Amino acid sequence: MVTFQQKILHLVKCFRRQWPLFSNSERTTVCGADCMLMALQLSMAEVNKQHHGDFTVSLSDVLESWNYLLHDKLGLYENMKEPENYADVKKAYHAFLARSNMLDLIDIYQKCCSLGLLAEDESIYPVQLLEFISGVMNAQENNGSVLSTPTRINRQGQEHVKVAVLAKKSVCSYLSLLVNSKDDLALAHILNVPDRGLGREAFTNLKHASQERKMSIFLMATSFIRTIELGGRDSASSLYDPLRAHVKGLSNFVNFIDKLQEIVGEILNTRIAGGRILSTVKMHLLKGRSNGDPFCQAVEEAVQDLDLKIKNIIDSQQETSTASTTGVSPAR
């Protein structure tokens, strides 16, 4: 019997195999539930900036719009009140994904269904996908387990889970940005991981600058640092350019991504390149931390897990001839 988790994996694999049917770029990436929610939050902040002058949004408003967006995109219309400025928010959300070279799970699901790409035992009902993305299905699946008893999850265990999630998210975000340089969500997560002095203000300044110049946030950061490296600090567009306060941190970030890109370009063996990239990211994240730091152990475990997954993917896809004929680079 095929589980729902396996059906979701089949859905993503279908996208990977048939990517030209979904996008014009092989570097398009999948936007899962957490990224969808973050993209919506940023989109709502943009709309609020236009209507009210503040690049902020309340959590309650985000959750209300999130619930409505999922029902709307899946065609599960109920007696729900449309949130304020929803049409603008939805437009900004899809524009954000397009700029970031991303497709969310609902877009991929609907495309697969319209093209008849899913087998009968891989079919998914809209209400199932709604429950999966909103987290309801995961909660239901855990109802019969010991882990579903909230009174026995101590604070230490909760902290361990948080650190593990942070570590894996950090490593995966570096890989995502390496594959898709337009992935602004991945950049937002790792811009200041490890600490580069690039907090909320730096990200906001970068985002505004990228919007003005109509480019991705990473390209904006790269362009700014290259200009300074080639012409010196005085070559920046303005003495009052807000980005000038973040030169050191942005330089550190851009040059590290350059280092990862060099590995992809120099090492032709995909397995070796993947291992080298993961090792380089690990050393970067652990620099300056003590061995007893829980984050260090979490990063080690995340890297080992991802390294094994990369190996398994390569072992199960010995299709280099297919890659060469479709134009998909082996490094991807």
UniProtKB/TrEMBL annotation:
Listed GO MF terms: DNA binding
InterPro entries: P-loop_NTPase, PARPBP
GO CC field: chromatin; cytoplasm; nucleus
Keyword vocabulary terms for this entry: Cytoplasm, DNA damage, DNA repair, DNA-binding, Nucleus
Any one GO biological process: negative regulation of double-strand break repair via homologous recombination
Compartments, record wording: Cytoplasm; Nucleus
Transmembrane segments: none
The family this protein is said to belong to: Belongs to the PARI family.
Protein name: PCNA-interacting partner
Organism annotation: Cardinalis cardinalis
Gene: Parpbp
